[in-house]
Description:
By secondary structure, the protein is of the alpha/beta class. It contains 12 helices and 10 strands. β9 (289-291) and β10 (294-296) form a beta hairpin.
Amino acid sequence: MDAGSLSDNYVSMAFKTVIITGANTGLGFHCAKSIANSGQNWHIILACRNLDKAKEAKQQLIKECDYRALSIMKLDLGSLQSVRDFVEAFKLGSFGELDGLICNAGLQFSVGNYKTLDGYEITFGVNHLGHFLLTNLLLAQMSENARIIVVGSGTHDPDKFEGKIEPAKYLGAKRLSHAELSSELTGMQRYTTSKLCNLLFTYELNRRLRNSISSITVNAYDPGGVPQTNLLRGEISGFLKIMRALMKSGIVRAIFNAFGIQISTPQKSGNAMAKLLLEKELDGISGKFFQLTKEVSSSKDSRNLEFAQDLWSASMKMVQLDKQ
Length: 324
């Protein structure tokens, strides 16, 4: 870990600081690259589970962008202790205040049941719970106008074409957090439901920030369909293999786009995600859902207050923030 090895210089040069989870590849990497090329003097922390891959990503960014305001820190969102260790390391790293947090990392298993180190269903645990704890623990470290970006997905919405394939089903946080209690969900449904949780979390956090008269903003982001990512883990079902192959075809992408399904690339989606952090015109904008650079509506379930309050309350207990 090289947390803080360059931070003192950057703080003294009035660099702002952003943390990007899962920044060693895909959207996160290209988001970091876009920020590095923005000319806005950001100290970029690549928060990654695999430090060797993070080091490779850092070196690639230095080479391609001629940019050195970069640090790598270990973060395994499948371990609540790792999240806590990460936050403590950040506090001790002389980074100054945190100006941006991009909750990008995520995973999907199409078949099989897997658990986090804490025993929670892994899709729910990594895509929602790890980021829930990380964000809440970092709030006290954030600057007055910090921006939080939570990566969601249009697949959470059953009223949209991509959401009809394997519709999200909010079964209650307790059931979603345990594979044996939510066995009726397919691997894809676990993913789409975790993306629904990302929206519920974003909107509830926004409500709480506004109630506390905070100027920190939080928005959700849909990168569109990006087949060239490492989202899928483990064995891949035949259906998903076919879908991934089809989305790489220019003709099929055009057909998908005609149905309102944005098929994108890691570069395009990463650049759009960076704009949510960088663009001046987004000052004060909070509680919104963006697909690439366009504000869009989200599902009816994502606006369900009962779901949001259940998710927040249960998540607080799971990560033991209710005792603090």
